[in-house]
């Protein structure tokens, strides 16, 4: 039996940010959704999602409206928001390779392990893919997976 290998593991807050924005992207354009509804739809903890959404509002990716009919909504259309923008809003920077698969300490280009160049190449490709993938692409991909089941 072959094991699944996961090379990219984004922090939980980053995953919730993307998942929460996918939930909002499913809503009609210019509509707002209550935080509780987003949290429930994505099976995410409300308080943690609240902090994440505050960061996304500060980054200009979400809008927040108080009062009746308020909540959270996308600040731009889903086809105009890149996944890397969401990651950048939540993280100070994309997580660097900090652990070597083969050594107890981190490897570097100055002291590489046998896998270092390959892993660095995969990371660069992943960053490029995240930069080229929009929230709409992610929404369509999530919808297609649900239809396949």
Question: What sequence of helices (H) and strands (E) makes up the elements?
Answer: HHHEEHHH
Work out the oligomeric state of the chains in this entry. Answer: single chain
Detail the poorly predicted runs. none
Q: What's the CATH first level?
A: Mainly Alpha
Biggest sheet strand line-up: 1-2
Gross CATH architecture: Orthogonal Bundle
Distance between the termini: 23 Å
Question: Per CATH, what is the topology?
Answer: Arc Repressor Mutant, subunit A
Features:
149 residues; mainly alpha; Arc Repressor Mutant, subunit A; 2 strands
Blueprint (SSEs and pairs):
Elements: H1 12-25, H2 35-42, H3 46-58, E1 62-65, E2 71-74, H4 83-90, H5 116-132, H6 135-148
Antiparallel strand pairs: 1-2
Helix pairs in contact: 1-2, 1-3, 1-4, 1-6
Explained architecture:
The mean pLDDT is 85. This protein has one domain (12-148): Winged helix-like DNA-binding domain superfamily/Winged helix DNA-binding domain (Arc Repressor Mutant, subunit A). A hairpin with a 5-residue loop joins strand 1 (62-65) and strand 2 (71-74). 50% of the residues lie in helices and 5% in strands. The longest helix is centred in the last third of the chain and has 17 residues, at 116-132. The protein has helices at 12-25, 35-42, 46-58, 83-90, 116-132, 135-148; strands at 62-65, 71-74. The protein is built from six helices and two strands; from the N terminus they run αααββααα. The chain has a two-stranded antiparallel sheet with strand order 1-2. It is mainly alpha-helical.
